[in-house]
Design brief:
This protein is mainly beta. It contains 3 helices and 12 strands. The strands form 3 sheets. The chain has a 7-stranded mixed beta sheet. Strands 5-7-6 form a 3-stranded antiparallel beta sheet. The chain starts with 8 loop residues before the first strand and ends in an 8-residue tail after the last helix.
Amino acid sequence: MSKPFFMPFSFEGQLYEFDHLEPFHIKIDSEKAKRELRIQVTFSNHCFSYTRIDEPWSTVLDKNESRPRVFCPTRYRLSLQLPDIIQRLNDPSIKVHQTWHRRNWVYSMKIEDPSGPYHVFFEIKKSPKHKSKYQELSLHVESAYHEDEGRAPNVVGTMKFHILCNNTYLGRKVSTKK
């Protein structure tokens, strides 16, 4: 049995496991590339943690980061939906927003609990040649959080997810217009 991508974590007497955030693949039919694109999906610990300096050191997940990450039960609970959310990106009508950094993207949706927008930030790249036998693209979910305290993402434009995948694979322009 292989080592889990994220090790279980104990917080306030409860054990949290992260099986739902194990890497997996999705497939996108690409007419432009004339093939099915296999996309490996991975997640960062930012999907279930946040940066907070004033928290007790015992709650810190990764002391090796330059800014320590603290476990967040709300982000964890919402992360349980992330595999399904990523699978839904396969719908050809889904649009994603390019962030002002122009290196990553965000998919936003309304959720019920807590009420309001939920943002999933990701980066997508063409896979290196040595991985092309298994996948054409890599999608890394960098962060996912419920919007509170006016932390809406700063975006510059939109693109359909399918077009983003096609263009990334084919080496075409992926930047959007303001």
